[in-house]
Design brief:
Layout: H1 2-10, E1 14-16, H2 28-33, E2 40-47, E3 50-58, H3 68-99, H4 109-126, E4 130-137, H5 140-147, H6 149-166, E5 172-177, E6 180-186, H7 190-206, E7 209-210, E8 216-217, E9 221-228, H8 235-251, E10 257-259, H9 263-269
Parallel strand pairs: 9-10
Antiparallel strand pairs: 1-2, 2-3, 4-6, 4-9, 5-6, 7-8
Helix pairs in contact: 5-6, 6-7
């Protein structure tokens, strides 16, 4: 609203020598701060016609009127700010592309390996639990063979969306490769990870997926769960055990959830 709002919407700078003569002026600031605004210069902070914000100056307590020279100085500052913001946003986008799987929008496997190491060190430092969930889609090859890779790719993207919608902001989901997904669950113990996997399995079973020609696709997954410190003491063990648990599900009927044997249970077996 006010002068700043007009500049933000229109992307054009404004010099107002006397605000009493301009209907775009809003007196809200003056009312809140017991100040009397007389003159305003306001310029957009933008780059390539995209407005990120505005810089607005109002007269000092001693009064004074802004002129064209003030506008030029402020515009130069705003231009540099606009370029810096644009470059920063572009760099952020590039960084995101480097760590993101193009098909699903989840993280890629390279970023997953970086993050599992980071989260493991963090869990050890703060003595907090950490869990890992492996998901492998059941009979995905049949979808590709029957309906083609375009349907298969779209199905992976839709499954990625289901996974993304199921996690917290602190969790990290990645496409591990092919039709395999992996989810890092910080500060989540073994029972919590099992509940998460059971819910995600239910979500996949209940969501309706279709092929390109309209045939309904029954989608399910085999889940493996492993946790620190109950099952594993390092990231390699955590990955290996979650993967093993997932393959045990695939070998005993699919569409299920299985947790890795605990360290205590494995010790008894040995």
């Amino acid at each position: 609203q006010g002068v700043a709002g007009w500049v933000a919407v229109n992307g054009q700078s404004l010099i107002i020598p006397d605000v009493r003569c301009d209907e775009r002026f809003s007196a809200e600031f003056d009312k809140q701060h017991s100040f009397t605004t007389r003159s305003i210069v306001c310029v957009p902070v933008k780059s390539q016609d995209k407005v990120f914000g505005v810089i607005q100056l109002i007269n000092s307590l001693e009064g004074g009127i802004f002129d064209g020279e003030d506008e030029q100085i402020l515009t130069a500052i705003a231009d540099f700010a606009g370029i810096a913001i644009s470059n920063s946003k572009a760099l952020d986008k590039i960084k995101q592309l480097v760590i993101t799987d193009d098909l699903t929008g989840l993280y890629n496997s390279r970023y997953f390996f970086e993050q599992i190491e980071y989260e493991m060190e963090r869990a050890k430092r703060y003595q907090s639990p950490l869990s890992l969930v492996f998901l492998d889609l059941d009979y995905f090859k049949n979808v590709n063979d029957t309906y083609g890779h375009l349907t298969g790719s779209r199905l992976l993207a839709e499954v990625g969306a289901v996974v993304s919608a199921s996690i917290r902001k602190t969790d990290k989901a990645a496409r591990y490769g092919g039709d395999e997904f992996v989810i890092i669950l910080p500060q989540t113990d073994r029972p919590g990870a099992l509940n998460f996997a059971l819910k995600l399995r239910k979500d996949l079973n209940e969501k309706t997926f279709y092929s390109d020609n309209g045939d309904r696709l029954n989608v399910s997954g085999s889940f493996g769960v492993a946790s620190f410190p109950d099952d594993a003491l390092n990231s390699n063990e955590l990955i290996s055990l979650a993967d093993e648990a997932m393959y045990l599900v695939k070998g005993t009927g699919r569409n299920g959830v299985r947790a890795a044997l605990t360290l205590e249970a494995r010790g008894e077996n040995n």
